[in-house]
Every structure is written in structure tokens, then in C-alpha cells.
Amino acid sequence: MPVKEKIDQITLPTPYAVGDVHVYVVKGEALTLIDAGVNTDEAWDIFIAKLKEHGYQPGDIEQIILTHHHPDHIGLVDRFDRLKGIYAHDRVDRWLRRDQEFLRYYLEFFRGLYREFGIPEKYHSFEKTAKTTLRFAGKGALTGTLKEGDSLPGHPNWKVLETPGHAQSHLSFYNKHTKEMLAGDHVLYHISSNPLLEPPVNQGEMRPKPLVQYRESMKKILNYPIQKVYPGHGPIFNEVSELIRGRFKKQEERADKVFRIIQEKPQTPFEICKQLFPKQYQSQFDLTMSETVGQLDYLETEGRVKQLKEGGHIFYAVS
Ligand SMILES: [Zn+2]
Fold first, then answer.
1. Which of 206, 156, 154, 196 is nearest to 176 (CA)?
2. Which residues of 176-215 are buried (b: 16+ CB within 10 A; e: fewer)?
3. 142 C-alpha to center of ligand 1: Å?
């Protein structure tokens, strides 16, 4: 088995602000598609045309491996008729199946959370966002699940690293022989990846702290001598540690800004979000809230702020 496997990048359009998404065709013992773009006819047509340039057709793809559950990465999963398997973190499965119970749980979680965060009803747009977003996701079910330390099926040189933060289901894949990483959206060269709020796996558990997880997942990949990163968006890049250190610095500066806002007086996450993102919070509400709450979680984990509960709302105060 050759150590170096052929990796072909295919770039597909998305209707999202992030722009194009990359998928990768990797030739090992199996012919594997890493990630699957968005579910539009335009993306599918472009995929077929570019796949042909690399000498393949859709029926040649034997399996799909997904880095995470976001719609721009799982869209085309149900368009392949000779697929033998779909593999990912087990948390991806519910997003491929999307049964009513899970969707209800998801919306219920955000309704409760947004209320606690002091967010007025007019910003409770997650229901609409979820519906429009899921239009571009593919449907299906996982054939097998991947976890930390597993080898990719059909690609024994590639190992799975769990890298939660951007998504609770996020995995990155590392080849220790070639020092290459298939990184999904874990690290992108041109923009920093957003840690996003998600409900806990099981109802009643503490919600995950995505920014705190994201920092851990970034530190984790600093332990690997990565020489080439194949990301989900933007350019392929080589230098990882400097990039990550820069991202840490920016994030910590933003956390200091949040801390100064709280120093004035205890406030709800919504009030803090408005001051942190005065220009963007209305047009990108869920994103700016996730970022704000991420910074609050980080400051709380560092012991610099604490939560106060009053009248059904959560306020953050200097501890
Ligand atoms: Zn993405």
C-alpha cells in the first residue's frame, strides 16, 4: 500500500456567505470522497464535470467520509447510487436522518437558551434558519462511525482526530507518513472558523462550550508536525502553528474586550453581544451570539467572570 495517496480537490459553489466549499477525492484501497458539498443541482453538475477531469465518474466513488454535519459538507450524500458506505462521527447521523423528534429537541433547546440569554422574541429566528439551511443538506444514515484514533476505512495511513468546536461532530484526518491533514473547517487559512452553539447530545446535560472546545482542538493539532492542510474552504496551506498562535491572540483580545464590557456592570449575553458586534448583530444574529457566548464561556472557564441568575435571565458579572 503506497503511503502517499492521490488527493484531488474539487471546489463547489454554495449559497452561503462562506462561498465555495472543497471536497476531496482520495485514492487508497478505496476511492473515497471526503465531504459532500451542498445539495443543489448546480453543485452536483459541477461535481460530475470536475470529477471527470480527474478520471472518475460518480459511480466510482465507493464511500463518503464526512468531517462534520454542516449542510455545506453533507449535501450530496444521497446522489451516489453505488456507494458502499458513509462514515463520520456518530453525531452526524442525526443530522442525516433528521427525524422530527431531533428537530423538535434542537428548536426547544434554542428557545430556552435564547430566553435565558435575554434575547427578544424577534431575534428567535433559529426555526427559519434551520429550515432554510437544511434544504441544502443531504439525507441518509451513517454506515459506520469514526472516533479518535481510528484509521479511515480503506485508508489505513489516515487517522481520526476528534476536533470539536466549530461543530460538535467535527473530525480531522491526519496522515503521519506524509504529514498531511484533511481538516474540514477546523482550521481555515483565510478566515477564523466559528465555534457554534449546539444542544448537548442528551437532553438535560450541560450544553457544550464550543469556544473552549475549539481552543483545546487547536492546541491538539499543534502536537502534530503538519506540513500540508487540505481545508473545507479557502487555500491549501502549509504553516499551521503560526496561524493558530495568531488566532489564539485575536480570540484572547476579544475576550478582554468582553471582560471590559462586563466590568461596567453585570449584563445578559444579548446586551453584551450588541456592544461587541454593534454593526453585525442584527444581520448575523446567531453567529454573533455564538461568538459572544463562546467568549463568555472562555472567561468563565478562566475564572474571570461568573453567571448570576435573576428573573429567568442569565447575567455575567466579574467574579
Ligand atoms: Zn463549511
1. 156
2. eeeebbbbbbbbbbeeebbbbbbbeeeeeeeebbbbbbbb
3. 19
Spatial neighbors of 281 by CB under 8 A, at least 6 apart, are 273, 274, 288, 289
Residues around ion ligand 1, judged by CB within 5 A, are: 72, 185, 232
The CA distance from 308 to 269, in Å, is: 12
Distance 188 CA to ligand 1 centre (A): 10
In whole angstroms, give the CA distance from residue 204 to residue 131: 24
Say how many Å lie between the CA of residue 81 and the centre of ligand 1. 24
pLDDT at 215: 98
Separation of CA 263 and ligand 1 centre (Å): 35
- Rounded Cα gap, residues 239 and 293, in angstroms: 29
C-alpha–C-alpha distance, residues 244 and 240, integer Å: 6
pLDDT digits (tens, 9 = 90+) for 106-155: 999 999 999 999 999 999 888 888 888 888 999 999 999 999 999 999 99
Tens-place pLDDT, residues 202-215: 888 999 999 999 99
Residue ranges and CATH numbers for the domains of the chain are 6-98+137-239 (3.60.15.10), 100-132+246-318 (1.10.10)
> Residue 265's CB: how many other CB atoms inside 10 A?
10
User: CA nearest 117: which of 317, 312, 319?
Assistant: 312
pLDDT in tens, 271-309: 999 999 999 999 999 999 999 999 999 999 999 999 999
Predicted confidence (pLDDT) at residue 5 exceeds the cutoff of 60: yes
Ligand 1 centroid from CA 143, angstroms: 22
Q: For a pLDDT cut of 70, what percent of the chain falls above it?
A: 99
Residue 303 alpha carbon to ligand 1 centre in Å: 32
| Ligand 1 centroid to residue 259 C-alpha, Å | 30
